[in-house]
Structure formats: structure tokens, C-alpha cells
Task: structure prediction
Amino acid sequence: MSQLKRPLVIANWKMNPVTLQEAKTIFTGIKNNSKKFLETTVVIAPPTLYITELKKLTTKTSLALGAQNTHFDVKGAYTGEHSIPQLVEAGVSYIIIGHSERRQQGETDELISRKVMATLKGKCTAVVCVGEKTRDTQGNFYSLIEQQIKAAVGEVQKSRLKDVVIAYEPIWAIGTGATATVADVMEMQLFIKKILTKLFDRTGARNVRVIYGGSVNADNAKELFVSGGINGFLVGGASLKPVDFGKIIQAVN
Ligand code: PEP
Result:
């Protein structure tokens, strides 16, 4: 199956767990619970400090590693940051960019665009998060999503769109248990494809994978995936529970 057709499930562990030992236990659990589901691309984005050690556990699996953030520059005087070559050397091939928890800390559309371009230059897949804080009945929140997508991927060359994933993550659904409905997800993924078609063309839009994130769990994954028209999920809370995360992978596989 081509990379684009394979379902994609990404675990965003955020700043969890507290110890490397726990991280290894969760990772091994996911490795065991996902090994039967070979049709699905599974990416684990742990805290950066754990990447090198978890990379050693990826032998005999197809699990890939992701980073939760990056700097756009390759090296230099950027205290506390990590560059793409450093992340790649540690084992990373996917980079989450513009998560709402980072936008909240001041990450701007301009910065996100620079990170996307640097990620592609570094031969990694860019997972760009977009999403509205709240919804209004008039649907004005769609303009915000359009603006976030244009700013993040507007500069990308059409030929590189296979390495771009848009993660639609409504902020009201992240970590709240309030999942978007199948209709919400379906409408939004169609809208995102329409924006991408306007920015590039139909082929370009088809090459971008669109995934959903926001309180995805073992119970709602199947319906959202089957009827939402999406390519997979970005999972926070449930990705720290190997049994639940295994069920989410099974649901898309
Ligand atoms: C996230 O933070 O990207 C996320 C989707 O979190 P959760 O699954 O916990 O809502």
C-alpha cells in the first residue's frame, strides 16, 4: 500500500510520562499491541529527551518516532531548542508543528510556516496542527482554519505535499472528552481539501493527509475513521495507554 493510502496514527505524549522507565514500558506495550496491524503507520512523539532511548526499541517494528516541536534553524544561539538535524540523528522522521498548546505560548503563523519549510528541507514529514478555540453558529471559525492552513503550507512546493499532514484539532475537543461529531469531522476535512485545492490543485490536495485529534479513544475511533473521511488520528491522552491505543490502531487498520 502506498504511504499516502496507509492510515496514520500519531501519539502525542506531550510532557508525559515522568520517567524514562515508564516511557519504555508504554512504548513496549504499544509495540506489542500494534504489531499485527501492519497496514497502519504508527508514530510515537515522546518528550525529546526519551527519543534516543526509545529509538533502540524500534528494532523489529515499523513504529516511527516523532518530535512534538522543532526549531527552524539548523544550529546556533537558540537556548533550549532542538534542530531538525539533531532530531533526525536521534531517530525522528515526523515533526508535529503548531500544536494549539504551543500556539497558546505564542507560536505565530509565521513561525509555523518557517518550521514547516525547515521540516521538509530536513526530509521529515510535517504534521501541521490547526483548530478553532470555539465554534459559532455562523461558521466563522472556518475562516480561521483557512488562514492557519494558508499561512502554514502556502509556501510549500506542490511536489512536497506528500510529506505534509494536516491535523485538525479543535481546541475545545483536546483533552476534554468532548469529541467532534462525525459530521463535524467530515465537513472540516472536506473544507481543508477545498482550501488545499484552491492553494495548489486537486492532485496537490489529494497528496495531503488529513487526520483528526481531540479526545479520540478506543470507543469513538472506529466511527470517526470510517465515516469522517479522514486518514487517521493524532492522539493525546489515550496514546499513553497501550491497550486503548492498540484499539485505536486496530480501528483504522
Ligand atoms: C492532542 O493534544 O493533540 C490531543 C489530541 O489530545 P487528546 O487526545 O488528549 O484530546
User: Anything to note?
Assistant: Residues 12, 169, 174-175, 213-216, 234-238 surround phosphoenolpyruvate (CB under 6 Å). The first strand starts at residue 8 and ends at 12. DSSP finds ten helices and eight strands in the chain.
